[in-house]
Specification:
Layout: E1 3-9, H1 13-24, E2 29-33, H2 40-48, E3 53-54, H3 58-63, E4 65-66, H4 73-78, H5 81-90, E5 95-97, E6 102-105, H6 110-123, E7 127-130, E8 132-139, E9 144-151, E10 154-165, H7 180-187, E11 192-198, E12 202-204, H8 208-211, E13 216-226, E14 229-240, E15 244-246, H9 248-262, E16 267-272, H10 279-293, H11 298-301, H12 311-317, H13 331-342, E17 344-351, E18 359-364, E19 382-384, E20 392-393, H14 398-416
Helix pairs in contact: 1-6, 1-14, 2-6, 10-13
């Protein structure tokens, strides 16, 4: 009977790093992937570019991770951004740093990252089985003994001293992330904190977003308002879609908006289209533009302030005829324009599904996992890594680093603890 030191369920970012780490420490490793290809989520991440990690300090990482970032303190101390980059760079992958500390492959091709990681797996002697769906984790006396799996439609019992659940969450289910790990964990007595999509586009009421669909704004200040109280803000890029709002800033704020919306609160998104100008400076600018334009139509003068697609929308909301001459615009109408430019509001009506969510919020409670090893406090020699744990980060490479760090620590802990 063939027996392994460790079986790892899921060949995504966390599972691959756990496999490398365990094998590097001398373990006989079996990596099981239910899909026909490894790391499918990595391949589509970052619009096919793969935002590997971020160069920010640990203290900054902790600000970008929820709900209990300090749980990762030991994992980050064991294996952090510099370590994943060294691992990849030493095997020939050239990386580059972009705005906000984001790190990408120089080729802008996620497949190069995956290829490099798979090359390392092969060098370390990790055995990989694809189309291998784990159906049950086998235990005896509250201790792991292996898994029952269907491999190429044939049921097998595979025995191991340790098992690592690195199955991902429920986001992008087409890549294989369908929530299997939550089922395994719950069956073995673990608490699963409420699951919901995170880093996901938001739906909004009305047709304003639909009228603006396709428009991208690079430098906007966006805020979440809950029951008429401002709670969170981000500066950066957003995009309008037929259903509502998306883009990096919206994805980052979506967690706070969704949590509040699910509790039946009134949730609104406010977009400051002119963040570089305060109210007074913007009013002075508007007055100057109007005074200098005389008989020109307001719609033409607004081109100095806004992208053309936004102009009819703003004027419609302000109830101003777009053909009205500038010298006919009243102080009251000018104020309406100013208010909309500084506070364009959208009422949140929901969010898109897991199919469009980058990560899953919620998961296996960190209270039931040893942060020094990633081992379950309930089942001996059962470990967790990656998105299956109740940890999620903002955009910018933070989620992949969670996966890399927890995966590496889990793989190492299997063998040396």
């Amino acid at each position: 009977m063939k027996k392994y030191d460790v079986i790892i369920i899921g060949a995504g970012a966390a599972g691959i790093l756990a496999s490398i780490s365990a094998a590097e420490n001398g373990a006989k490793v079996l990596l099981l992937e239910k899909m026909s290809r490894e790391a499918r989520k990595m391949l589509i991440s970052g619009k096919g570019r793969c935002n590997i990690t971020n160069t920010a300090y640990q203290s900054e990482f902790f600000k970008k991770i929820h709900p209990k970032p300090k749980f990762l303190k030991h994992a980050f101390s064991t294996f952090f951004s510099k370590d994943i980059l060294r691992l990849l760079n030493e095997k020939g992958l050239v990386t580059k740093e972009e705005r906000g500390g984001r790190v990408f492959p120089e080729s802008d091709n996620a497949a190069d990252v995956v290829y490099t990681l798979l090359k390392i797996l092969k060098e370390k002697g990790v055995e990989i089985k694809k189309k291998a769906k784990v159906e049950k984790i086998l235990t005896e006396n509250n201790k792991v003994k292996g898994v029952k799996a269907s491999i190429n439609d044939k049921e097998e019992l595979i025995y191991a001293t340790n098992v690592i659940i690195a199955t991902g969450g429920k986001s992008y289910p087409a890549t294989g992330s369908t929530g299997d790990g939550y089922i395994f964990a719950k069956e073995l007595g673990h608490t699963i904190n409420e699951l919901r999509p995170a880093l996901v586009p938001l739906k909004t009421e009305g047709d304003i977003a639909e009228k603006l669909q396709g428009l991208s704004l690079k430098n906007s200040n966006v805020s979440v308002w809950i029951n008429n109280k401002k709670t969170n803000s981000e500066f950066g890029e957003l995009m309008f879609a037929h259903y509502g709002l998306t883009g990096p800033v919206i994805l980052t704020l979506s967690k706070f908006a969704i949590d509040a919306f699910d509790k039946k609160n009134d949730v609104q998104i406010s977009i400051d289209l002119k963040p570089a100008l305060n109210e007074q400076k913007l009013d002075n600018r508007l007055q100057r533009e109007l005074n200098e334009s005389g008989k020109k139509q307001i719609r033409n003068v607004m081109r100095n302030l806004l992208p053309s697609k936004l102009i009819p929308v703003i004027l419609e909301l302000a109830k101003i005829d777009q053909y009205k001459e500038c010298n006919q615009i009243s102080a009251k109408e000018r104020k309406k324009i100013r208010v909309l430019l500084k506070d364009l509001r959208f009422k949140v009506s929901g969010h898109r599904s897991y199919k469009e969510a980058i990560v899953t919020a919620g998961g296996v409670s960190t209270n039931e996992i040893d942060s020094k090893t990633m081992m379950s406090k309930i089942i001996e020699n059962l470990f967790f890594a990656g998105e299956v744990i109740d940890l999620d980060g903002e955009t910018g490479g933070f989620n992949f680093q969670i996966a890399f760090s927890t995966g590496w620590l889990a793989g190492k802990s299997c063998i040396i603890n």
